[in-house]
Amino acid sequence: MRTILLIIFSVVVTVNVSGQKKKEIKANKIKSVTVTQDDYIDGKTVSYKESYDEYDKKGKQLVKIDYKKDGTIKQKETTAYDSYGNKIEETFYEVKKERNEKKTYKYNAQKDKTEEIEYNGAGEVVKKIFYVYNADGNKVSEMVYDGSNTLKKKFVYTYNKKKLKETRLEYNSSNVLESTRKYSYEYY
After folding, report:
1. Measured torsion, CA atoms of residues 129, 133, 139, 143, in degrees rounded to the nearest 10
2. Which listed CATH number (2.40.128.110, 2.40.128.720, 2.160.10.10, 3.40.630.30) goes with 83-188?
3. In terms of pLDDT, which residue wins out, 13 or 39?
């Protein structure tokens, strides 16, 4: 019975520590969180590091690492931000799926994302997305290219008089309309 209670307590503590909200992390000035798991097998305690998260002073996550029971990395994510708090780079590493990629982001003066570039593990461009906005700050187009700069998809957005999204038109690489998504609103 005592072993079961210890396992339940260990799981509850793990969930609560790693489940901290951004505002709690910032308010408590948390720099990092390490979660250690204790498993009780045949009367013996087997401990291992389960995860590690690192944060900046604003509570934004910089590093997230998940570990296997043998202590090796299962997956790792890193994030970098500019001085305005915009995400400018993400890296993803996952052993099981042999996934190793990076994404970079650029923004305009209004903090709207204007460019997203995805790289594979060799540093080669896999995908580029460019965003265009109108004077109201609404996204009016999104162009998706592959690594060789070939247009793969285009999305065009329209807005109503209240500046709410009205339609999203999706075009293929031959500029043929493939789908339309319509937004309707009910007002009080």
Report:
1. -30
2. 2.40.128.720
3. 39
Burial of 151 (0-12, 13-18, 19+ CB in 10 A): middle
Residues 6+ apart with CB under 8 A from 98: none
Start and end residues for every CATH 2.40.128.720 domain found in the chain: 83-188
Does the pLDDT at position 18 exceed 90?
no
Binned at pLDDT 50, 70 and 90, residue 20 comes out as confident
Ordered DSSP codes for 29-83 = T--EEEEEEEEEETTEEEEEEEEEEEE-TTS-EEEEEEE-TTSSEEEEEEEEE-T
Give kind and range of the element (H or E) at residue 2: helix 2-18
The pLDDT value given to residue 19: 63
Calculate the CA 101 to chain-centre distance: 13
